[in-house]
Design brief:
Layout (H helix, E strand, L loop, with lengths): L3 E3 L12 E5 H6 L10 H7 L8 H33 L11 E7 L5 H13 L7 E5 L7 H7 L13 H12 L5 E7 L4 E10 L4 E5 L25 E7 L1 H15 L19 H24 L8 E5 L5 E7 L2
Parallel strand pairs: 3-7, 3-8, 4-7, 8-9
Antiparallel strand pairs: 1-2, 2-10, 5-6, 9-10
Length: 327
């Protein structure tokens, strides 16, 4: 096995990169024989629209990733126990805090499928941990607030989220609160669902999935640095692909949604369901160029180098290479 130093986030190669690059086959060969599998019915259920992830991908990409995360989880727990022992704290005084994983990437790159898949696989790892998944969509400001601020067309940009509420949610989970709740977002209605909450009850592992979860801390008005959501991550994954491929996947998904979610009478995008294919494709391209592409290039892509692992997809949506941050 050859581990090749790489510079996936240093395009001019002027600085040493913090990652090692592995081909898909080299990465697949790292997996051991631990029985972490997923059945076809579950895989069909968690796969996103148009996402071709199959059992080969599970075996060659996501099983070794699950095993690596499991190792991080075990050793983080061992460090927690050792620290408590050093401080003279009894185990009943300090319950181990949840292991938090961040999943980041562009719209339409497949991060939701990866997050759901990891949730299922991690729950099947040897210790059978309780795994919860929360998306940052629930922490978007309601449409009424975004309209009032004049940023409805910037939904998904960092400023469209209730950052304080999202940060407080993760802090509470990480602090060991027995029950923490998050708002719920409806992709059909394109808005927060009033009064509905997603409850998390002290999981062993919590996955946080969203476009901008790897954003760096912000500079406060007094010159000090604030906290970043990623400060509370124990492991993070960035789903990467060339922008031209992501745009093509986005347009394809948009066209497919006209036959599914857009036909729902409550759908915010119901008018698009009746457009001819060529007009719908032009609408999708316009949305991509005005909103999703700028968000990707200005906010999401610059955070790629903050991840623990980067999964780079080729034009066929299959992971071709894996970058792992050197430990």
């Amino acid at each position: 096995m050859i581990l090749t130093p790489s510079h996936p986030v240093d395009d001019d190669n002027t600085e040493p990169g913090p990652f090692i690059e592995l081909s898909r086959q080299t990465w697949a060969d790292l997996a051991d024989s631990t029985d972490i599998d997923i059945d076809d019915a579950t895989l069909d259920r968690i796969r996103g629209l148009g996402d071709p992830t199959d059992q080969v991908d599970v075996d060659e990409v996501y099983r070794p990733l699950t095993q690596l995360i499991h190792l991080h989880c075990m050793h983080t727990g061992a460090l927690f126990d050792a620290s408590n022992s050093f401080l003279g704290l009894q185990q009943h005084q300090m319950r181990r805090t949840p292991f938090v994983i961040g999943i980041a990437g562009s719209v339409a790159v497949g991060k939701s499928t990866v997050a759901r898949l990891l949730k299922e696989l991690l729950a099947r790892s040897p210790r059978r941990p309780q795994v919860d998944l929360v998306t940052t969509d629930g922490f978007l400001h309601p449409n009424a607030v975004l309209e009032e601020r004049g940023i409805l067309d910037r939904k998904g940009f960092p400023e469209s989220y209730d950052r304080k509420a999202l940060l407080q949610f993760v802090v509470d989970v990480k602090s060991g609160e027995p029950e923490v709740s998050a708002p719920v977002y409806s992709h059909v209605e394109y808005d927060i669902v009033p009064g509905e909450r997603r409850v998390v009850r002290h999981p062993d592992i919590l996955i946080i999935e969203g476009l901008n979860v790897l954003q760096p801390p912000r500079l406060r008005h007094n010159g000090t640095m604030g906290l970043a959501l990623s400060d509370f991550f124990d492991f993070s994954v960035y789903i990467d692909a060339d922008e031209a491929d992501i745009m093509r996947w986005y347009i394809s998904r948009f066209l497919a949604l006209r036959q599914t979610a857009f036909t729902n009478p409550r759908s915010f995008f119901g008018d698009y369901a009746r457009l001819p294919d060529d007009e719908a494709a032009e609408v999708a391209k316009s949305i991509w160029r005005r909103i999703n592409a700028p968000n990707l290039t200005q906010n999401i892509l610059p955070t790629r180098g903050r991840a623990t692992a980067i999964l780079h997809k080729g034009p066929d949506h299959e992971v071709r290479n894996v970058w792992i941050r050197k430990i």
